[in-house]
Amino acid sequence: MHNHFSTIASKYQSVRTLDIKPVLYIKDKLKKKPKISMADVGCGDGRYALEFLRYFDDSFYIHCVDYNENMLLSLEDHLAAQNITNFCVRQGDANRLPLDNDLMDCIVTFNAIHHFDVPKFLSESMRTLKDDGHLFIYTRLRNQNSRSIWGEHFPFFVDMENRLYELDELEQHIKNADMNIHSSRVFGYSRVSSLDRLVHQAKNNHYSTFALYDKETFDESLEIFQQNITNNFDDLAQINWHDENILLEIKK
Ligand SMILES: C[S@@+](CC[C@H](N)C(=O)[O-])C[C@H]1O[C@@H](n2cnc3c(N)ncnc32)[C@H](O)[C@@H]1O
Q: Which of 98, 164, 191, 249 has a CA that sits 20 to 30 A from residue 150's CA?
């Protein structure tokens, strides 16, 4: 997986879809805090960090944590190009956060929890959050993944992606860590794409799931995917489907 993220780092923003709704939702949840120190864990190339930096004022500071050096290099390029200075990068593991105790008002993790050792990450979040700190976990659940365009039409996608969680599994981890879910919110998205773009995304492993296929199986599956899409949609330039993700808000 590390190699996968190293390879995709420089083109990550061009192949992934950014969801703004959870960023605005988190901003609203934090509106009573005067000055915010946030950590984005598994930040990748910083596309979500950049959105937070856009929506908060200069009193906001974000620590961008990822274990992948190439992702962090891309992040530094993107943010420096926009003259942003209220951030730092910290190369390190979500399971052993490179952050001091009781430092953070808020920790967020987007599309990454299934790569972490969840009990260790939760325990590290407890350690590094201030007493009234918030942790937000944004992810797609296994059942949400299975209803996506890939889950419905790309052979083996659901079986191959066995790292994602169901809600009850995350709830159990959170309970075991002596933490409470304060709110949970499902976000739905009407997506539109062309078949060409979908093929481009799959070929570029926009989901790390595709990196789990061997080449032969991937090539055959991509052919079948294109056939499935052609059979199920009339306009291959405007394929419509519905995606869902969940955001969990946890208070220390
Ligand atoms: C699917 S990407 C998501 C990136 C970003 N949050 C986004 O949504 O654009 C997952 C990221 O988690 C990072 N990652 C995976 N396991 C990690 C770990 N144990 N500690 C820190 N980062 C990790 C990967 O390097 C990668 O950048």
A: 249
